[in-house]
Amino acid sequence: MWRRAAKSSSFLPLLLQLPKHDASLPQRFTTGFPFHAPFQEKGGISPKQVAPLITFVLGGPGSGKGTQCAKIVETFGFKHLSAGDLLRREMISDSEYGSSILNTISEGKIVPSEVTVKLILREMEASDNQKFLIDGFPRSEENRAAFEQIVGAEPRFVLFFDCPEEEMVKRVLSRNEGRIDDNIDTMRNRLKVFEALNLPVIDYYSKKGKLYRINAVGTVDEIFEQVRPVFEACEQEAK
Ligand SMILES: Nc1ncnc2c1ncn2[C@@H]1O[C@H](COP(=O)(O)OP(=O)(O)O)[C@@H](O)[C@H]1O
Ligand SMILES: O=c1ccn([C@@H]2O[C@H](COP(=O)(O)OP(=O)(O)O)[C@@H](O)[C@H]2O)c(=O)[nH]1
Ligand SMILES: [Mg+2]
């Protein structure tokens, strides 16, 4: 089971002491690649951590993120964490955030970072897997910064499913999953939010050399043939 190096009540100050750059984090996020946590509890025995391998999966609404994630899980054994699914689950639970998540999703806006990061982190900590596909997050620069600060890790690489708007609209309107946000009015807002807030995140990772752009038009299998080599290369690097 992957664990953050410190507990939630006390980890923030510790993380704030870390250098901004991820040099203190493992240089290679590989399975079974142990590293000494940069922060150790005072007087404690040095804990051996296995760094998680994190991949962010980005793209507009309906670009095929969830569909491709299912294939990546099947082929490469990642744990799939869809931020949207986690929020929808939280929304229908008794959570204090339920009604505000409902309103935010209905309007196609972005849920506050601390809520989403908390849900993602909870799943990561509860998982036995060390390889995480984080789907549909970060959706804004603020999301990205919150994840880095709270989780204390960066993605090894980022996939971007690049899809024309008219194709995304067509797919979302025929998705048929009964989602409150799969209607034309909310979809218009989601596309605006994607362009204004999510594209800058994609640009950020492109400039860092971590972005893999995938042409999201074609059959599911054709698209997966672009995705596959990215993960194969990652596996090779881990050997
Ligand atoms: N390559 C594809 N061609 C046509 N339809 C697709 C393709 N990939 C996914 N879909 C369909 O489009 C809809 C949106 O896909 P989904 O994976 O949910 O996208 P996202 O998670 O990016 O919103 C779903 O109904 C899905 O079955
Ligand atoms: O990190 C996230 C992920 C999702 N959402 C909200 O959840 C909705 C649905 O997200 P999801 O990723 O499920 O949609 P998709 O892009 O897959 O259609 C978004 O429009 C947002 O309102 C959010 O606020 N933060
Ligand atoms: Mg999705």
UniProtKB/TrEMBL annotation:
Binding site for a ribonucleoside 5'-phosphate: R88, K109, I110, V111, G136, F137, P138, R139, R179, R190
Organism the protein comes from: Phaseolus vulgaris
EC number from the UniProt entry: 2.7.4.14
PROSITE patterns in the cross-refs: ADENYLATE_KINASE
Predominant place of localization: cytoplasm
GO molecular function, one term: CMP kinase activity
Record InterPro entries: Adenylat/UMP-CMP_kin, Adenylat_kinase_CS, P-loop_NTPase, UMP_CMP_kinase
Protein name listed in UniProt: UMP-CMP kinase
Function according to Swiss-Prot or TrEMBL: Catalyzes the phosphorylation of pyrimidine nucleoside monophosphates at the expense of ATP. Plays an important role in de novo pyrimidine nucleotide biosynthesis. Has preference for UMP and CMP as phosphate acceptors.
Binding site for ATP: G62, S63, G64, K65, G66, T67, R175, G218
GO cellular component, one term: nucleus
Cofactor: Mg(2+)
